[in-house]
Amino acid sequence: MMNMTTFKRPTILSLEQALSMSYATLRFVHQGWRVIRIESTPVSGRASKGDPNRFIGRPIAGEDRHSYYIAPNVGKEAIALNLKTIEGQALLHQLILELDVDIFCTNTMPARHQALGIDAHTLQEIKPDLIWCCISAMGCAYPEVPGYDPVIQALCGYMDLTGPGDGPPMQCGPPIIDLKAGDEAFTQVALGLLERQQGKTGAVIDISMAQIAASWLHTFLPMLDMDSPPQELKRSGNEHRQFIPVNAYPTVDGYIYLAIGSDAQWQRLVRAAMFASLDQPHLASNEGRRAHKHALHDAIGKITSAYSSARIAEVLADAAIPNAPITPIEGVMELPFIAEQLLHTNAPDGRIIRLPPPAVATPYLKEQRGQLSFAPSYAEHTEAVLQEAGIKPAAIDELRTNGVIS
């Protein structure tokens, strides 16, 4: 029989700020793993402390927990170390050993790794089975490049693909490069843990935001080598570039999104009385509709603008045509299939704050009934974590006096 061992929920130390790595470690929280986020000690002359995102958005809990910071950092602990000092680096190394840390994460620019003592070589010399994971703009081979989501969107073609065809380049609404990088960090760390269980020591995971951005361009980049001119792939507003018609159309009371993905769906659409005027031979195939797409979009818009969104949705549902209203952002959490999966946290003032659902529901979240602890204040857990690592109160006081912790 196979020897079964109890799964130890991993412990993660993460020198993180902003969104990409904070979102990755939030996904660890969703699994019930312990995440201790590390921030820097106060910088002389600077009013704000630690993660700059703490001070973005509306103030929610004191001066250091504003609205933009809260959601990606629920369920975590927070400590502050001065890694610019030898003492601070030694303290980090002690924490890794004494807390039996499984994973070290960072989205600090790679050019700073060695000076802070957080490079993979240094940390894996201390603990060989440590899984080390970094997110940066272009990976560790390009250590001096800062990583900002909209800049990567611009650099890697996303803005050339986003927006109306006759308008300027635009960024996507959500920060999708940050989030994709976080998802990739979660995936690669999970693979690293699996390999470690199978006998491999540690892992070095080097995530390039630019590379992960390009990795999503399957319906664009290869088509350039298959005779698609660049203009065919560029900004097209709400239209699909290949399937016609797929677009947002005006209604009496808003807009509705309609998606025809095959000629069979088109035939079902034009059999409906509302759209019967579109049953024309030259529109029977997708390529025919592509050749006349501008006139076709106008014709559909004239039809839909005479009816309510609900009436059009009813007709489209009867014809088994994919469609959806344009849900305002304030209505998304009210959608029943979202509302039943939402997470939540309680702010210090008692109010309940709803959080986005997890990417996939986990047993841990079910155990917690979707409740996660509120995002930590700056350095909130420094003393408790150091005591857990065996550091005596007098030594902690000395570290604080010397500016090694905050």
Structure description:
This protein is 37% helix and 14% strand. It has 406 residues and is an alpha/beta fold. It folds into 2 domains: 11-215 and 339-401, Crotonobetainyl-coa:carnitine coa-transferase, domain 1 (Rossmann fold, 3-Layer(aba) Sandwich), CATH 3.40.50; 246-327, formyl-coa transferase, domain 3 (2-Layer Sandwich), CATH 3.30.1540.10. Strands 3-2-1-4-5-6 form a 6-stranded parallel beta sheet, with helices on both faces. Helix 1 packs across helix 8 and helix 8 (176-197) crosses helix 9 (209-215). The longest helix is centred in the middle third of the chain and has 22 residues, at 176-197.
Biggest pleated sheet? 6 strands, parallel
The number of helices is 19
CATH class assignment of the largest domain: Alpha Beta
Describe the global form.
elongated
The CATH homologous superfamily of the largest domain is termed: Crotonobetainyl-coa:carnitine coa-transferase, domain 1
Reading side by side through the largest sheet, how are the strands ordered? 3-2-1-4-5-6
**CATH T-level topology of the largest domain:** Rossmann fold
Strand content range: 5-15%
Topology:
Layout lengths: L10 E5 L4 H11 L3 E7 L26 H4 L6 E5 L4 H13 L4 E4 L6 H4 L3 H7 L4 E6 L12 H7 L2 H4 L14 H22 L5 E6 H7 L5 H4 L5 H4 L12 E6 L2 E6 L3 H9 L14 H6 L1 H12 L4 H10 L4 E3 L10 H4 L3 E4 L5 E4 L7 H5 L14 H7 L4 H9 L5
Helix pairs in contact: 1-8, 8-9
